[in-house]
Amino acid sequence: MEGARCSGATRPSRPRCVVSPTAGGPVASQTEIDAMRRAIDAARTVGRTLPNPPVGCVLLAPDGTELAVGVHRGAGTDHAEVDALKQAGDRARGATAVVTLEPCDHTGRTGPCTRALLDAGVARVVHGSSDPAEGAGGAKALIDAGVDVESGVLVDETDELIRFWAFRHVHGRPFVTWKYAATLDGLSAAPDGTSQWITSQTARRDVQQFRAECDAIMAGTNSVLTDDPRLTVRDDDDRPLPYDRQPLRVVVGESKIPQYYRVLDRVAPTRLIQSRDPHEVLGLLNEAGIHHVWLEGGPRLAGAFWGAGLIDRVIGYLAPAMLGSGRAALEGEATTLADIRPIAITDLSMVGPDIRIIGTPGRAPREDMD
């Protein structure tokens, strides 16, 4: 809904917007659309902000001149609008705020952005995504106060920006990414259980970039006992990031993990969950405020989540090698081709010598017949 005018309907549905120059006021100008792209780019540079969304804001003077670019850097820090307003100072009066997410109308660790925008004298707000969480209602509050609001500008791009954060608020559970590494014949471990390393160092560095997006890294007890993984985010020199930048390590299963295993060290926080039910696991993580789970090992745990329909994205790394025998990347209960679950490929890339495939799981043919 690029350049839509918002009439300020109440939540939880999106504000009603009309994509038309006749909607009662001007739709977003090219200058504002260009500013939205800069706001999106700014938000992408910050890295993980969970449990808060990544947000960017560009302040424009009445003549279209850029006054400031603000970003949100994580829980407890200034929201993007406030960051930009502080930079602009008195120049913000009469300005247009172009922000990737609907300004919040909620008091949490910080005050509502709607109040900050009104106090600064901002005359117009152009935003992308609508807020699905407790901060919703900002567009209506601004409209009621006499501010001109445009909603849904570059919304596909801004929705993608907050994809993982918004998913939990819409679906009531964390988003789950399953990552696996396998040979070309689909095996992730040799018959003796060894699996380090199937893919190249280049691929393993690539994995760290994806891990850094998440706020939880999950593995099963069997995988942890076999491989003694660190389950941490590390830099290019294989050094762990600081403790406060590490996702929660989650180990699922009933086997006891000895205290000397690396997953129980003090490099990152760890939670042990003794459960075989993927729904229960995600329920507990949802209660803990987790938005994005990186599911990494092993095939039994992945199979349980796959069978429950609780995997939202698949990232597979295929090494140019064959094992011939060993453990498959996924253990499940499929008995016929009617149980096959397709994956819509969204990205296919070479990462060093390996192939990286990213996709979204679909429904099994049998489910479509139900």
Automatic annotation (TrEMBL):
Query: Its Enzyme Commission number?
Result: 3.5.4.26, 1.1.1.193
> What Pfam families does the record point to?
dCMP_cyt_deam_1, RibD_C
What does it catalyze?
A: 2,5-diamino-6-hydroxy-4-(5-phosphoribosylamino)-pyrimidine + H2O + H(+) = 5-amino-6-(5-phospho-D-ribosylamino)uracil + NH4(+); 5-amino-6-(5-phospho-D-ribitylamino)uracil + NADP(+) = 5-amino-6-(5-phospho-D-ribosylamino)uracil + NADPH + H(+)
Q: Which SUPFAM superfamilies match?
A: Cytidine deaminase-like, Dihydrofolate reductase-like
Its UniProt pathway annotation is:
Cofactor biosynthesis; riboflavin biosynthesis; 5-amino-6-(D-ribitylamino)uracil from GTP: step 3/4; Cofactor biosynthesis; riboflavin biosynthesis; 5-amino-6-(D-ribitylamino)uracil from GTP: step 2/4
Q: Which residues form the CMP/dCMP-type deaminase domain?
A: 30-139
Keywords recorded for this protein, A-Z: Hydrolase, Metal-binding, Multifunctional enzyme, NADP, Oxidoreductase, Riboflavin biosynthesis, Zinc
Question: Which parts of this chain are annotated as the region Disordered?
Answer: 1-26
Name what cofactor the protein needs.
Zn(2+)
Function of the protein: Converts 2,5-diamino-6-(ribosylamino)-4(3h)-pyrimidinone 5'-phosphate into 5-amino-6-(ribosylamino)-2,4(1h,3h)-pyrimidinedione 5'-phosphate.
Similarity remark: In the C-terminal section; belongs to the HTP reductase family.
Q: What is this protein called?
A: Riboflavin biosynthesis protein RibD
Species for this entry: Aeromicrobium senzhongii
